[in-house]
Amino acid sequence: MVSIKDVAKHAGTSFKTVSRVVNKDPGVREETRLRVQQSIEALNYRPNSAARMMRNQKSGVIGFLSDEVVTQPYAGDILLGAQQVASEHDKILMVVNIEHNRRHQQQALDMLLERRVEALVLASYFHREMEVPPEMLTVPSVLVNCFSTVEQLPSFVPDDEQAGFDATRLLLEQGHRCIGLISLDPRIEAARLRLAGYQRALQQAEIAFDPRLVVQGEGLAGQGSCSTQEAVDSLMALQPRPTAIVCGKDEFAMQVYFLLLRFGLRVGHEIALTSFDNQRLIAPNLSPGLTTMALPHLAMGRAALGHLFKPQADNSIRRLPFSVIERESHLLTS
Amino acid sequence: MVSIKDVAKHAGTSFKTVSRVVNKDPGVREETRLRVQQSIEALNYRPNSAARMMRNQKSGVIGFLSDEVVTQPYAGDILLGAQQVASEHDKILMVVNIEHNRRHQQQALDMLLERRVEALVLASYFHREMEVPPEMLTVPSVLVNCFSTVEQLPSFVPDDEQAGFDATRLLLEQGHRCIGLISLDPRIEAARLRLAGYQRALQQAEIAFDPRLVVQGEGLAGQGSCSTQEAVDSLMALQPRPTAIVCGKDEFAMQVYFLLLRFGLRVGHEIALTSFDNQRLIAPNLSPGLTTMALPHLAMGRAALGHLFKPQADNSIRRLPFSVIERESHLLTS
DNA sequence: CTGAAAGCGCTTACAG
DNA sequence: CTGAAAGCGCTTACAG
């Protein structure tokens, strides 16, 4: 590899002068600068960042520990947002997938710390509590789409309570008074919070909460036996029947479109629907289009990185708002 | 930061001995090794990888230039596969999103080359031709899910022709003789190849190709005016009507489930469907489940990285097979 | 089995 | 405006 000395020899100057040109130091005669510049291009010289890092005692790298963020649909937007802000601050992100694997996680962390990362980001593909490895406390760190109850770390999560409220409010505004909720597994953080939002919306509309209107759409992976079909069946068996349903996620909603047909009910005609996630593969392709709450993935990624570059170290949990994506499923047309 | 010298002082030895312990050199007395080990833990010492890189003249890093691979659903599996193989070879991947942006791409490339990446991977989220930046030719490089007609680089892409063949064959095996194809925009590589596979399957079944059975489901982003609805309408207007349809992607298929209802046709009963992509958000949630061809994302990522670690430098295009994911949509039940 | 010297490619601080 | 010296934290090659 060609080094600063090779360039110096080629340009007939000292290597220190080359360093000045590379770093755009002002104190170089224009003529010398030009000559060095030409040599740099002639030899295709690139400064060795390892040498720079060693001398400067900083790496310019921020570690990004990803729990399936890059493989789950759209969660990659967290990474995208993080990369945007990092790049604005001339930092580069080093991304490692940890994929639930303890040993991998430890190896990844060791590797990142040996590379002297200046900060660490731990991001999950869904909103949940995570165990924070103790090494994370040795450098500035933030959590994205996850939180810890044992370690005090700044944490950026979606505001699932607000989303639950808004998804319900949209239906209340259309005059519905009997609104079902097909819930996620209650062990999921989002399930609890969205339910709370649903209840708050009802309360604000002065409608008594009826627990029979809340049914579970599925168990956690491989654990539950309840299905979306059972959930729909039990809602449809109620007297009076709900005239609208809040679906715990777009996948539920998609299934519900089909399941309701068996009761002679068409979404957007006899029954209204709202949902969560704004999966771009699902929501716009249903007809009528699915009205759903979009997760603030990009904003969480941006906010988390932004926080790292701010002086204040406030270790609280920030809840970022969902966006209401209004299509047609929450409206009824005859 | 604590260095090798600090550890040496703490352990009462020379820093060279510490280096030996860290690198597991055999020639160290057990007693000394233990003492040094304790000092390492006491001081929480971690070798500085920048110093190592400089001394060893290699970075252990492979650059991964991603064109939306981490943000598009499931394309992240390319990265996952790449990371698996890199990790098996004790290399680490440095991922940068380039997102169509020329300037970003140049910056990313410069950064990676200054970090002395030992190889480069350029990956696209869909199968297409890409412009290869000239700097890529200065280090070993591979293309994933994309190819170049001007530069000779090893390239790993999905075998869209085979997929088209298989998606059609599944329907032929069920006795269908009149099979529609709702095609992607023909400017897309996959559209051309899948059509070729469709035609080969028909030919092998000794069925004459009828161009009226091939309709376009959409134009490229913002360009075409043709919709899935028009495509379905024109297929349904044919005499005789097709009894089965190959859909260019799962999103088409999803829409087709709904659109066919207007003709009184239920997928899996009066009409059979196959498709491409195996979007896990869509295919299993349709009823009946969608039979579709799964893209070999993980395999492409793995194969591409594997190629970098092999001695031979064969610059040809490898086409990796799709998997047939059989659900129920290609079968008819009354 | 252990250590002193040299050098990887840079930058910082000081001279000229 | 330009240069020689020292040092960042390691490893390689050579002595003892």
What do these coordinates show?
Chains A, B: InterPro entries: HTH_LacI, Lambda_DNA-bd_dom_sf, Peripla_BP/Lac1_sug-bd_dom, Peripla_BP_I. Chains A, B: This is HTH lacI-type domain-containing protein. Chains A, B: GO terms for molecular function: DNA-binding transcription factor activity; transcription cis-regulatory region binding. 2 copies of one chain form a homodimer. The first copy, chain A, is built from 11 helices and 12 strands. The first copy, chain A, is elongated and about 90 Å long. The mean pLDDT of chain A is 92. The first copy, chain A, has 3 domains: 44 residues, Orthogonal Bundle (434 Repressor (Amino-terminal Domain)), CATH 1.10.260; 123 residues, Rossmann fold (3-Layer(aba) Sandwich); 136 residues, Rossmann fold. The first copy, chain A, is α/β, with parallel strands linked by helices and 334 residues long. Chain A has a 6-stranded parallel beta sheet with strand order 2-1-3-4-5-11, with helices on both faces. In chain A, strands 7-6-8-9-10-12 form a 6-stranded mixed beta sheet, sandwiched between helices. Chain A binds a DNA duplex (16 and 16 nucleotides) through α2 and α4.
